[in-house]
Write a structure and sequence with these properties.
The structure holds two protein chains of two kinds. Chain A is built from eight helices and ten strands. Chain A is of the alpha/beta class. Chain A has two domains: about 120 residues, 2-Layer Sandwich (Nucleotidyltransferase, domain 5); about 140 residues, 2-Layer Sandwich (Nucleotidyltransferase, domain 5), CATH 3.30.420.40. In chain A, the strands form two sheets. In chain A, strands 3-2-1-4-5 form a five-stranded mixed β-sheet. In chain A, helix 2 packs across helix 8. By secondary structure, chain B is of the alpha/beta class. In chain B, about 40% of the residues lie in helices and about 20% in strands. Chain B has a five-stranded mixed β-sheet with strand order 3-2-1-4-5. A four-stranded mixed β-sheet of chain B has the order 8-7-6-9. In chain B, strand 6 and strand 7 form a beta hairpin. The longest helix of chain B has 21 residues. The two termini of chain B are about 15 Å apart. The chains are: A alpha/beta, B alpha/beta. Chains A and B meet through helix 3 and helix 5 of A and helix 5 of B.
């Protein structure tokens, strides 16, 4: 029984193909301006390597920013519920999910059944979202994926006084002009990011186990800094943290299919 | 008696020279990387206009972000106090001043003597400060000083849904790509910015005897948008440059201080 989940985000689109509880295939692509197009493209990218076609999918659930415009889904579910569902599938002991996406940040608390108890979202301010890191990586002239590794090499970690992305940018420029190393600056950036995310995470009430999802969870510097900030061990998930929303959507699709069968 | 005020801001530096309470000259420059350099340069230019030398100044007060780096100032005063004093001197009835600078925004309430009663201040978030307009002018490929004139041709101002400068910049780029007219986009930006500043002012309760100072007050589109957002007719400060009000207040405080020291 093949189920699929499709997560159309602001910056990336993700698809997961699930056979029962097993991930058969997954794909991540950059989002285009048209969610319909992104959805078709990412789903084809996931189906292809698995040797499957659209007709093999028994059910598909859509999520993410562009979920209402995915042409082939039977149902849509909020990103919050999908991230919780996906994380709980991989780590049944998880009680707090911190999802940091390209343009927002969510802190979600779950009960033992993987259901959402409480959540907080920030999508109003770029600080504490992936956009903050994107702006800073560009300023340092490095790729977003190098920001995490680089910060772990810091010898004299710096700090940033501003929360606002715009003001922090000015601070980073100042550090660069001051001849500070990119590693030391990257450490300040990840630290600032973690500080901002931790406020949201604390407001939802941290309960163990804690995991992080979304593209920013790939940044080891942020994960480490956030763990220290919250004084908790942030546990790794057994797959790409960026696909957890799509994975959760696929789990919902599987449940939906079972419901139809029974 | 010659007194002076020197306001070293984040983006510009301003100097005002007074002769016993009358403006002799004033000057505005773009800020240099070092505040000391900004202070010397702007004061030098103001002195030259007045045909005076630094030694002729009996007392100088420094204000603004770089106020502790004005080498020739005898004392310093907060920008809040200086904007309040400067505005009250030009408009004796004024009870509230909204000052939008390059990197901050302030709402100041005054008593009848121009003393600060209460104020609200934002320098934490770039939204609602001059930087917001600066970034947007960059995204539109315009000079910031042209935004006011262009916005006056707006027919259907757009609604900007993001408050954050970073997110609003992306929104502007998609509006440009959608083919929305520049005047409509700029008018929408002015409304968004005015809304943000108005909420700061509303936090300390609006007084209808209100004026606007700082560089952003030169933008007519912004001036009108703020009037709409506040629901108040903003008092014009006449011929004076709204950007020099802080330096003017500093010079007035220098004059008052010097005067009270005399036997």
């Amino acid at each position: 029984m093949i189920a699929a989940g499709c997560d159309i985000g602001s910056l990336t689109s993700k698809a997961v193909i699930l056979d029962g509880r097993k991930i058969v295939s997954q794909a991540v692509i950059g989002s285009t301006f048209r969610p319909e197009e992104s959805a078709r493209e990412v789903m084809a990218a996931a189906l292809g390597p698995a040797g499957l076609s659209f007709d093999d999918i028994g059910g598909c659930v859509g999520t993410g920013y562009g979920r209402e415009r995915i042409p082939f889904v039977g149902k849509t579910v909020s990103e919050i519920a999908c991230h919780a569902k996906g994380a709980a599938l991989l780590m049944p002991s998880v009680r707090t999910v911190i999802d940091v996406g390209g343009q927002d940040c969510k802190a979600i608390r779950l009960d033992a059944g993987g259901r959402v108890v409480k959540f907080f979202t920030n999508d109003k301010c770029a600080a504490g979202t992936g956009r903050f890191l994107e702006v800073m990586a560009k300023l340092l002239g490095i790729s977003l994926s190098d920001l995490g590794k680089l910060s772990l090499q810091a010898k004299n970690p710096l700090s940033l006084a501003s929360t606002c992305t715009v003001w922090a940018q000015a601070e980073v420029i100042h550090h660069l002009n001051d001849g500070k190393t990119k590693a030391d600056i990257a450490s300040a950036i990840n630290q600032a990011m973690a500080g901002r995310v931790s406020i949201l995470a604390r407001s939802v009430g941290i309960e163990k186990d804690v995991c992080m999802t979304g593209g920013v969870a790939k940044n080891a510097g942020v994960v480490e800094a956030l763990g220290k900030c919250l004084d908790v061990n942030i546990r790794r998930l057994r797959c790409d943290p960026q696909i957890i929303g799509a994975l959760g959507a696929a789990v919902f699709a599987g449940e939906m299919m079972k419901g139809v069968q029974s | 008696m010659i007194t002076a005020g020197c306001d070293v801001g984040s983006l510009s530096a301003k100097a005002v020279i007074l002769d016993s309470g009358s403006i002799v000259s004033s000057h505005v420059i773009f800020a240099r990387p070092e505040p000391e350099d900004s202070a010397r340069e702007v004061m030098g230019a103001a002195l030259e206009k007045a045909g005076l030398r630094l030694e002729d100044i009996e007392c100088c007060v420094g204000t603004g972000y770089g106020r502790n780096h004005v080498p020739f100032a005898q004392s310093v005063q907060s920008e809040i106090a200086c904007h309040g004093r400067g505005a009250q001197w030009l408009l004796p009835g004024v009870r509230m001043v909204i000052d939008i600078g390059g990197q901050d925004a302030k709402a100041i309430k005054l008593d009848e003597s121009g003393n600060v009663v209460r104020y609200a201040y934002n320098d934490k978030c770039a939204s609602g400060t001059g930087r917001f307009l600066e970034v947007m002018a960059g995204a539109l490929g315009l000079r910031i000083e042209d935004m006011g004139d262009i916005s006056s041709r707006a027919k259907e101002p757009v609604t900007i849904s993001n408050q954050c400068v970073v997110f609003a910049e992306t929104e502007i780029i998609s509006l440009i790509n959608e083919g929305r007219h520049q005047p409509d986009i700029i008018a929408g930006l002015h409304r968004a910015m005015a809304h943000r500043v108005a909420s700061l002012a509303k936090g300390i309760e609006i007084d209808r005897e209100l004026t606007m100072t700082g560089g952003v007050a030169k933008n007519r589109g912004m001036f009108q948008a703020l009037e709409e957002a506040l629901g108040v007719k903003i008092m014009e400060i006449g011929d004076a440059d709204p950007q020099i009000i802080g330096a003017l207040g500093a010079a007035l405080i220098a004059w008052k201080n010097r005067d009270s020291e005399k036997p």
